[in-house]
Structure formats: C-alpha cells, structure tokens
C-alpha cells in the first residue's frame, strides 16, 4: 500500500483496500501510533460518525416530507348523500324529501303533524336566543319518532327514554335518523356471575 512504508506495523494489520485509503490520510502526531489498536479505534469512530450523519439526514428528510404531507392534507368534509352541509341547510322541504331514505320520505309525504312542528319551532327559538359562540338551551321532548332534519343541527335536545331525558347535541351525521336512536330506553346487559339456581349443582340444596 502507498503511504504505509513508514509504518510497517500498520501494513500487516490493515486489510486492503479500505485500510490503505484510511492509512494514506495525513494524521496528526497525537493520533499516530505503532499500536494497531489506535487505528482500529479511529476506524470505529469514523463508522459511528458516518452512521450518525446518515441518521440525521434521514430525520431531516422525514421532517420535511411530513410537513409537506400535513400541508397537503385536508380535513374530511361532511356530506349527506353527496350534498355538502351548506347546501343541505339551504334545501327546501320538497328537495329534502327527495334526498332522504324511503321510510323518511313516506313520512314527509304524509305531512308533519302539530307536535313535530312545535318541536322545530322551539328549537328555532332556542337558537335565536342563544348568545354568540354558545350552545342553545336544552329543549326537552317526548317525540322519540321525530326524524332529524338539517334545521335541527346544532340544537341541544333532551330526548325522553321512558325514565329520564338524555341530553343530545344534534350533529350533521344524525340527519335522517330517529331521535330514539340516540336515547336508548333500556340498560345494556352486563353479565356478571351466575346466581343461585342457574347451574345444575345449585338448583337443589337439601335441608339438613
């Protein structure tokens, strides 16, 4: 190897060709030693520095790529059967009737009675009296079969469950559903340990 003539001990321990290139570099007097362990230490340090620089480059690249992806990303907009929320609020009753599912369409064709219209008027009044950037007051109702219409979005309704009024905020995803779907009338069963008489061994306990 070129450059190794003055260091015969390094010529024996360095495998070509990487060792020849590293040994040919100008080294300071403090790092040059006849002991082969000094060269191995320098080689290890260089490898570690190379790995650290590569990791830093990958981190910077990933950070830039993540920033671009975040910038391009847009929040998912709500749409009901292909209609945006702004357009949905502007629909007339006839246009809304043609958009909703068949069960609600048959209901609208028969016409809304006095009680559903009274609920809509109460919700409308609560919205008008609400302060800016605040939720409207709670409006309680027993009409569990009321179909959610776009005009009700943003209102707070207390839906009767048969025992109490469950407070529900009407959201765009609820359009076309019944109010009863958001206030269940039963308590979900959570099975615990079996009671007496549930198993064969506990059916009959003889008296002593």
UniProtKB/TrEMBL annotation:
Which biological process, per GO, is one annotated for this protein?
A: translation
The organism's superkingdom is given as Eukaryota
Q: Organism, per UniProt?
A: Penicillium desertorum
Tell me one Pfam family matched here.
Ribosomal_S19
Stored SUPFAM superfamilies = Ribosomal protein S19 (SSF54570)
Which cellular component terms (GO) are annotated to the entry? cytosolic small ribosomal subunit
Q: What's the family? A: Belongs to the universal ribosomal protein uS19 family.
By what name is this protein known?
40S ribosomal protein S15
Question: Which NCBIfam families has this protein been placed in?
Answer: PRK04038.1 (NF003121), uS19_arch (TIGR01025)
GO molecular function annotations of the record: RNA binding; structural constituent of ribosome
Keywords per UniProt: Ribonucleoprotein, Ribosomal protein
């Amino acid at each position: 190897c070129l450059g190794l003539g003055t260091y015969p001990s390094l010529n024996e321990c360095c495998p070509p060709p990487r060792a020849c290139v590293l040994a040919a570099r100008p080294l300071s007097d403090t790092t040059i030693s006849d002991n082969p362990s000094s060269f191995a230490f320098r080689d290890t340090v260089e490898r570690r520095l190379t790995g650290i620089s590569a990791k830093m480059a990958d981190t910077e690249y990933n950070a830039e790529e993540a920033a671009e992806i975040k910038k391009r990303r847009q929040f998912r907009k709500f749409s009901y059967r292909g209609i945006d929320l702004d357009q949905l609020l502007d629909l007339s009753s006839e246009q809304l009737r043609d958009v909703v599912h068949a069960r609600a369409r048959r209901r609208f064709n028969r016409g809304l009675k006095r009680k559903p219209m009274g609920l809509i008027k109460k919700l409308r009044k609560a919205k008008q009296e609400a302060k800016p950037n605040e939720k409207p007051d709670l409006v309680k109702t027993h009409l569990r079969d009321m179909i959610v219409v776009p005009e009700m979005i943003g209102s707070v309704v207390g839906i009767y469950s048969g025992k109490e009024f469950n407070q529900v905020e009407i959201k765009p995803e609820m359009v076309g559903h019944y109010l009863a779907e958001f206030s269940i009338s039963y308590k979900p069963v959570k099975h615990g340990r079996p009671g007496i008489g549930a198993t064969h061994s506990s059916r009959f306990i003889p008296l002593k």
